[in-house]
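quick one
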Amino acid sequence: MVATLTLLGTLISVNGDPETEIKSDVTVIGGGPSGAAAAYWLAMRGFDVTVVEKKVFPRDKTCGDGLTPRAVVQLEAMGLADFLKTQHRYLGLRTIAFNRSYEIPWPRHPEFPEYGYISRRSILDQAVLSRAQEAGARVFMHHEALSAETGTGGITAVATRNLDSGESVNLVSKFYVLAEGSNARVSRSLGATRDQAKPLGLAIRTYHPTARADEEWVESHLDLRDSSGAVIPGYGWIFPAGDGSANVGFGLLSNRSRWRKLNTTRELQRFVELADRTWTFGEPEFPATGGKLPMGLAISPIAGRNYMMVGDAAASINPFNGEGISYAYETGRLAAGILTQALATGDASMLGAYPEQLRARLALYYAVANAFVRFISEPKLMSAGVWSAMRSPALMAPVVSVMANLLPGSSAAQVERIYRFANTAREKLSQSRWG
Ligand SMILES: Cc1cc2nc3c(=O)[nH]c(=O)nc-3n(C[C@H](O)[C@H](O)[C@H](O)COP(=O)(O)OP(=O)(O)OC[C@H]3O[C@@H](n4cnc5c(N)ncnc54)[C@H](O)[C@@H]3O)c2cc1C
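structure w/ flavin-adenine dinucleotide:
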């Protein structure tokens, strides 16, 4: 029997029976930003990489489509500077709350550019995965990873199903990168669990036609209230997409279960209705879709003897702002770097460095961000914080730099200390009020 495998829309054949086995150095589960980045960095170093992706690209992925300067650096490093020039460039953030509005340009930074892009994920993800393919990665679309077989050395094979033919394909490799996104079935089956005490994000979005689609500022609304008037810990966004539409959405950052019950579809409709009329929003392109944002490195363990989790599967989203694309590229690249050494030396124990290296890069910053989310989960504190910030324009630029993780090292450490202080103050405040 012949198993048919779809390769970025092209049909190829692999001879064998329904239990076809594909061998490679590294198997990557998921072709989104984290998987595509891992595959690109491994393939361009000459390793044999197989990616399985359950959808057929181009596919929609629920997202705000916002690329910050951090993401731009990663995309440019993968040779996608020309692609980015075809996308909608923006210069910074317009923050709006309590009838005030400030335009805050992306900061000057030694490492990052002073611009970002809005890029529909259907287009962006295909561009990155195609790049991995050009570098030599084998990509099987419409193939779903179902389960991982394990032994003493970690994963021994990943069972996948060809969603066109129903045939089974077994992927056997030395190492595995789990890049499945927020619904990480295989990762969970390997024991990865989320720390419930850490914040979880929820977000929803759709596209509306607008006369202001070419604007060079993305908008963030920080004083959201639900229909009962209660402050919502999160923000609404309007991201002009440069193609006649804007990505309009609403995100909720919280560690409180009560916010998870909020009817986000209804709140998004209210947000659109209350938006400035100059947006001239038309009917949505499709009913809003939502998703979870696993954040703050809340998932563990993220590595085993011969596998690593990257991107949302490792909860790498920044809790300050819900940004996950850049961190997906960064964790995919980090994992590929460690795998490069492990493949070159034949020493699988090197994978033990992955959680450590990830923590070294992000843990302190994310601890502060997690504390920030706890802070804004108190409606009064959230409201008071936004109110004060909106009355201190000089504060807004550094706050945006902190939240987008765009501070140079030394000042980042200073601001982290400030946030730690703020969190301690908040705890003392609640103890004295309720204790
Ligand atoms: C509403 C919303 C708005 C957001 N807005 C932004 C934003 O503006 N900017 C930003 O930076 N981040 C944003 N994020 C976060 C961002 O979308 C994620 O952090 C990012 O997509 C993570 O990339 P990933 O590769 O880890 O996972 P994903 O992008 O989810 O990719 C995972 C891929 O794996 C595939 N897959 C899953 N399971 C299997 C399987 N078993 N077998 C084969 N394939 C599988 C999926 O089909 C998918 O293509 C937003 C998230 C949401 C929900």
